[in-house]
Design brief:
- Helices cover about 30% and strands about 15% of the residues.
- By secondary structure, it is of the alpha/beta class.
- The protein has one domain (about 30-350): Aldolase class I (TIM Barrel), CATH 3.20.20.70.
- Helix 4 links the parallel strand 3 and strand 4 (about 135-140).
- Helix 2 (about 65-80) packs across helix 10, helix 3 runs parallel beside helix 4 (about 120-130) and helix 4 packs parallel to helix 6 (about 160-170).
- The protein is globular, with a radius of gyration of 20 Å.
- The protein starts with about 30 loop residues before the first strand and ends with a helix.
- Bound molecules: S-adenosylmethionine and iron/sulfur cluster (2 copies).
- One iron/sulfur cluster binds next to loops.
């Protein structure tokens, strides 16, 4: 029988004082998008109809190399970042991702290294990712219904493939997976209890996410958002819930435990209960643009800096200056944007 691997222990770096933005929010988390391509076409993220003929994906030569990504990680950890999440697009489509994970996990100061994935490629990579030092996995799964799933994934992938991916992660030794479910009214909301029933008692934590108006292509409408409060009432009526205090500052999900001890769920309520006040997340796209908000329209191009000079101190100063001037709070100001504002960056480019 194969034994799950134990992640490697990396020496802890001395704690670093985080820079603060204009609202005194620290810089703690970095979401690195490693590729903007994907093998699915989720309608709320990368709708196939909107992509037709657009040539939206980044050419290979514009992607940051592994060395450039490692350099960024080193500079960000020097600024106090200790949580890194690899995302995309579908990160497991990036060639050599396991090697990149190995190098990031070995970087002093990285205390928490996570991956968000649609899970379809986990059967191939889960064991190697665990051995490389990946700490946590978040899997996206919107429905267990074999008819609803392809409606949301653009006809690609299947429920079975995702469940096989989850099983592979479990077999590799990953515990307490997060299962991200974007809930859309009239699309998959009726199947929420079914999904929760499947994961109750497994130790995995389903997080119900409000459909967000990120990007410009996903035909977002407020009517399709199911407010977390409505779901909470519904779920509580079936399985009584009690709130759980968050463990880490800046946590995006409001946590609840089943009173019968069958585990926890979370609500990510970016639309109905924004959490900008504690947002400590920075994002870098696969081509090296630095963003300080998921809904940003403009980023700071780091690729020229990374390719021009081997100057970590210069890079650090640029990031620091950008964080100091940060005043993003899109979700708290939703709907107040000036008409004609620049188009927002798409989710599959920005990284979720
Ligand atoms: N491909 C990977 C995956 O799906 O897990 C990683 C990238 S995906 C952009 C990251 C997360 O963003 C996923 O959990 C996805 O469900 C979420 N997401 C994408 N578009 C969204 C939207 N419009 N509203 C809410 N969540 C969204
Ligand atoms: Fe791909 Fe993830 Fe976007 Fe779905 S949500 S299209 S899996 S990047
Ligand atoms: Fe953070 Fe922007 Fe989301 Fe607010 S809207 S929580 S600032 S990413």
């Amino acid at each position: 029988m194969t034994q799950p691997c134990t992640p490697r222990v990396v020496p802890l770096a001395a704690p670093v004082a985080s820079p603060r933005d204009r609202f005194a929010r620290p810089l703690r988390d970095l979401r690195l998008s490693v590729l903007d391509r994907c093998n699915l076409r989720c309608t709320y993220c990368m709708p196939g109809d909107s992509l037709m003929g657009r040539g939206v994906f980044l050419p290979r030569e514009q992607l940051l190399t592994d060395d450039e990504l490692i350099r960024l990680v080193r500079v960000f950890t020097g600024l106090g970042v200790d949580k890194i999440r690899l995302t995309g697009g579908e990160p497991l489509l990036r060639p050599g991702l396991v090697g990149l994970v190995d190098r990031i996990a070995a970087t002093p100061g990285v205390h928490d290294l996570a991956l968000t994935t649609n899970a379809t490629l986990l059967p191939r990579h889960a064991t190697a990712l665990r051995a490389a030092g990946l700490h946590r996995i978040t899997v996206s799964l919107d429905s267990l219904d074999p008819e609803v799933f392809p409606r949301m994934s653009g006809g690609r992938g299947s429920v079975d493939e995702v469940l096989e991916g989850i099983a592979a992660a479990e077999a590799a030794g990953f515990r307490r997976l997060k299962i991200n479910t974007v809930v859309q009214r009239g699309v998959n909301d009726a199947g929420v209890e079914n999904l929760l029933a499947h994961f109750r008692g497994t130790g995995h934590v389903v997080r119900l996410i409000e459909f967000m108006d990120v990007g410009n292509l996903n035909h977002w409408s407020a009517e399709q958002v199911v407010p977390s409060a409505e779901l909470l009432r519904r779920i509580h009526a079936r399985w009584p819930l009690k709130p759980v205090a968050s463990e880490t500052p800046g946590e995006t999900a409001r946590r609840y435990a089943y009173e019968d001890g069958a585990g926890e769920i979370g609500f990510i309520s970016s639309v109905s209960q924004p959490f900008c006040g504690s947002c400590s997340r920075a994002r870098v796209t696969a081509d090296g643009n630095f963003y300080t908000c998921l809904f940003a329209a403009r980023g700071l191009a780091l690729r020229p800096l990374l390719r021009q000079a081997d100057d970590d101190a210069g890079l650090r100063d640029v990031l620091l200056a950008r964080w100091h001037e940060r005043e993003d709070r899109y979700s708290e100001e939703r709907g107040k944007q000036a008409p004609g504002a620049d188009p927002r960056v798409e989710m599959f480019r920005m990284g979720g």
